[in-house]
From TrEMBL:
Domain of life: Eukaryota
Modification type 1-thioglycine: residues: 99
Name this polypeptide is given: Ubiquitin-related modifier 1
Function noted in UniProt: Acts as a sulfur carrier required for 2-thiolation of mcm(5)S(2)U at tRNA wobble positions of cytosolic tRNA(Lys), tRNA(Glu) and tRNA(Gln). Serves as sulfur donor in tRNA 2-thiolation reaction by being thiocarboxylated (-COSH) at its C-terminus by MOCS3. The sulfur is then transferred to tRNA to form 2-thiolation of mcm(5)S(2)U. Also acts as a ubiquitin-like protein (UBL) that is covalently conjugated via an isopeptide bond to lysine residues of target proteins.
Gene this chain is encoded by: URM1
Organism: Chrysemys picta bellii (Western painted turtle)
Gene3D superfamilies for this protein: 3.10.20.30
Transmembrane found in the keyword field: no
Cross-link Glycyl lysine isopeptide (Gly-Lys) (interchain with K-? in acceptor proteins) per UniProt, renumbered positions: 99
Post-translational modification note: C-terminal thiocarboxylation occurs in 2 steps, it is first acyl-adenylated (-COAMP) via the hesA/moeB/thiF part of MOCS3, then thiocarboxylated (-COSH) via the rhodanese domain of MOCS3.
Pathway(s) of this molecule: tRNA modification; 5-methoxycarbonylmethyl-2-thiouridine-tRNA biosynthesis
Subcellular location: Cytoplasm
Amino acid sequence: MSCAFSFYFRGGAELLFDGVKKHQVTLPCQPEPWDIRNLLKWIKQNLLKERPELFIQGDTVRPGILVLINDADWELMGELDYKLQDQDNVVFISTLHGG
């Protein structure tokens, strides 16, 4: 059994992922559902192509990356502890821009 998710990278974050803005991903379902903490580790190992320090800081996203889960701010959803549901959409938007 597997779980399907969509990940979107916007606001320049897509540049860290070979310019790909949308990723359709099927992950193996586990006895414990995937949470955002484990998802970020998986993204770092499997999708992130360059400069991980611009996306990940410790075990979370770095400041300046807005995370939306099904169009809601992840702060309202439990942040790193949010348990992903099949067909969830997770959007990462960089709010930091060079000048």
